[in-house]
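Fold this: Flavodoxin
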Amino acid sequence: MNNTLIVFYSLFGNTENLALEIAIQTGGALRELIPDKNYSFDYNTACKEVRNQISRGFSSKLISGNESIQDYQTIFIGSPNWLKTLAPPVLGFLRAHDFTGKTVIPFCTHGGGGFGQIENDITRECSKSIILPGIAVNGTVAPEEVANWLEKIGYEL
């Protein structure tokens, strides 16, 4: 069994596309995080909802994707960059699990803000794990970009 897990939250599909490419190239299991309350599909309304949640340090409860991570040693964690930080469903996932001794690899999609504070936020929540450098993608993900990143960080099947 491949002991790699790719966990992600995606509202508009961008982070999902990156997660799918990582899963294809690593052979890891894919797990989508689904919060108990959906965000609006209207961009401006979703931004207001998210801004309110992030300002309160809110972490979403999940109805799917929160299963055990015990059987996985390497966990890729993906989020859109929302206001320079993690989407609340991803924060909820991080707070629900013990990552001690696991290798955690962040990835994100963004509209120009790069990682923002996402890598720092993951490092804070997973303080007893090994954190490898992540990838931040603006726009369409290129398979060769993912392959080059995986090689650079020394990921091996």
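The mean pLDDT is 89. DSSP finds five helices and eight strands in the chain.
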